[in-house]
Amino acid sequence: MIATKTSPNALDLGWYFSEDKQEIQMAKVRQENRATHLYVIGATGAGKTKFLEFLI
After folding, report:
1. Of the residues 3, 6, 30, 49, which has the fewest C-beta atoms closer than 10 A?
2. Model confidence, pTM
3. Rounded distance, CA 25 to CA 4, Å?
4. Whole-number Å distance between alpha carbons of 8 and 30
């Protein structure tokens, strides 16, 4: 089963499988959280840690 609830106040990040609900769900982040949070992804050795160090 795929959960497809929409929220006008959230940004869709991508699909994931919820072990608790046993269904595929859309990962979302609310607009107000986007202003105060940072999500950094990348392959091993891509420089994620160095990027975060430069922000400090």
Report:
1. 6
2. 0.51
3. 7
4. 9
For residue range 30-44, list pLDDT tens digits in order.
Answer: 888 888 888 888 999
Q: For residues 27 and 10, is the Cβ–Cβ distance under 8 A?
A: no
Q: Are strands 10-18 and 23-30 parallel, antiparallel or unpaired?
A: antiparallel
CA–CA gap between residue 9 and residue 35 (Å, rounded): 13
Residues with Cβ within 8 Å of 1's Cβ and at least 6 positions away in sequence, in order, are: 22, 23, 24
Instruction: Write down the domain spans for the chain.
Output: 10-55
SS3 52: helix
pLDDT in tens, 2-24: 556 667 788 888 899 988 889 99
The amino acid present at 51, given as its one-letter code, is F
